[in-house]
Design a protein that fits this description.
heterodimer, A: about 100 residues, mainly alpha, about 0% strand, B: mainly alpha, Non-ribosomal Peptide Synthetase Peptidyl Carrier Protein, Chain A, about 60% helix, Complex1_LYR_SDHAF1_LYRM8 (chain A), mitochondrion (chain A)
Amino acid sequence: MGASKGQRLSGMQKQVLSLYRGFLRAARSKPTEDRRQIESVVSAEFRRNSKQIDRKNFLYIEYLLRRGKKQLDQLKNPDTMGISSLNVSPSQNNNAKT
Amino acid sequence: MASIAGSSLSMQPRSTLATTRASGLRLISFMNQGRNSLSFSLRPTPARLRISCAAKPETVDKVCEIVRKQLALPSDKPVTGESKFSDLGADSLDTVEIVMGLEEEFGITVEEDNASTISTVDDAAALIDKLCSEKA
């Protein structure tokens, strides 16, 4: 996400930022404590991905965008109280045993 | 109210030096009741209007404060109206957070098209003032 210098954002970057905005907006409708937790998880997740993923890896970013949109829809449900991050990144091997 | 105070101030130099501030104010409030005063009170307005188009200093200050908080900047780091978010170390995700923080603080909603045009504190403050005046 180093493109804020020239303010020339690609379509995909705009989609990512729009999704991020959507998450922060959805978090506003939750009680304060849940909201803080949601914000920190969402922020950490976006930042982690922005550093780890090659910005030319369009397929994977598109997949994450789709996944994020679904998660956002779930978060918008008034019954959803929180969010937790599932580490399914390749570097993480804890989730393999199931 | 601000424009009335403004016009009364700028009228003072035009009247004779003997006029005191108090009598100048009384004069204005009296004249505003009559219709003849229109030509008088209109004259100083254009100059005032140009100033109110730029962002208000208090808005700029508030934006600076929020930006500082959002980016966790040390207190010795100067943040002014000309400060660019990217120069302060903000990436595009930070900029989204800043805009969201401003929305909450000022009770406004920034459209996404507008959000992407904001790159300095002054940009943000000008947009906020515009949105606030539209809301009012």
